[in-house]
Design brief:
By secondary structure, the chain is of the alpha+beta class. It is built from 5 helices and 11 strands. 15% of the residues lie in helices and 21% in strands. The chain starts with 11 loop residues before the first strand and ends with a strand. The N terminus is likely disordered.
Length: 243
């Protein structure tokens, strides 16, 4: 297993959204990525993003909306505010696609091709995108914060945010991407998977009812890119091309 601690530290800067939330930024290849999941509550024109939807409303809406995973699902998180601080908010795809803009000015939600380029870059650096590979691309992109991590220090933690413990798949954050498992609000409205599963929207539509998403799982080493219904609630990262 490689470790970013043996290599030069990735270049880190910051960007601020319309609400004043500050995000760490890392350069990977020809792109800058936000290191943290999005927490914004307003579109870039100042309009509020709807929230507080019931399960039925969440399942049926075709408007942008966000939700906060239930803090009751994560031992050690005691409020919605703590959940947002740890894992960000969960947005449906309609918020991602809204022309008013979800990401900070000059930034965008990555397309499925952008996610693919990120994975291709990581693979080219020696981390195969294989689910059963402990040295896989997903493990190289995950935050090293993990229960029982052998890396020690701040990586070995049971405090949120962190990944679940796994005997084979150890998170080592080779590139400073620091992917964290914010879980999801599924299209039926219920919440799951804090600490186990990281899911991020792509800006790219697949069909009238589906769009592309990327996922990393605590018990696998790969990054999976697939399509799913637009009413699911996932985390969002933002990207800027530096060509």
């Amino acid at each position: 297993m490689n470790s970013c601690k043996d290599d030069p530290e990735p270049k880190i800067t910051t960007v601020t959204d319309i609400d004043g939330n500050v995000y760490q930024v890392v350069t990977i290849g020809f792109y800058e990525w936000t290191v943290e999941n999005l927490r914004v509550t307003n579109y870039n024109n100042g309009d509020p993003i709807p929230t507080g939807l019931s399960n039925d409303e969440w399942a049926s809406t075709t408007e942008g909306a966000y939700a906060i995973n239930l803090h009751e699902n994560a031992d050690g998180i005691n409020s919605p505010e703590e959940m947002v601080e740890a894992y960000g908010k969960l947005y449906n795809w309609y918020a991602v696609a809204d022309s008013r803009g979800l990401c900070p000015q000059g930034w965008s939600v990555p397309s499925d091709n952008d996610w693919t380029r990120l994975v291709d870059y990581v693979v080219a650096e020696g981390f195969p995108n294989e689910s059963d590979n402990p040295n896989g691309a997903g493990n190289a992109l995950k935050s090293c914060r993990q229960v029982n991590s052998p890396l020690g220090g701040e990586c070995n933690t049971s405090t949120h945010p962190r990944w679940i413990s796994h005997s084979d798949h150890l998170c080592f954050d080779e590139f400073g991407f620091s992917a964290l498992p914010g879980g999801s609000r599924w299209n039926a409205g219920y919440f799951t998977n804090v600490g186990h599963l990281g899911l991020w929207w792509s800006a790219a539509e697949f069909s009238g009812s589906t769009a592309w998403r990327s996922s990393m799982r605590g018990f696998y080493g790969d990054v999976s890119i697939s399509y799913i219904g637009k009413n699911n609630g996932y985390s969002v990262r933002c990207l800027r091309d530096i060509d």
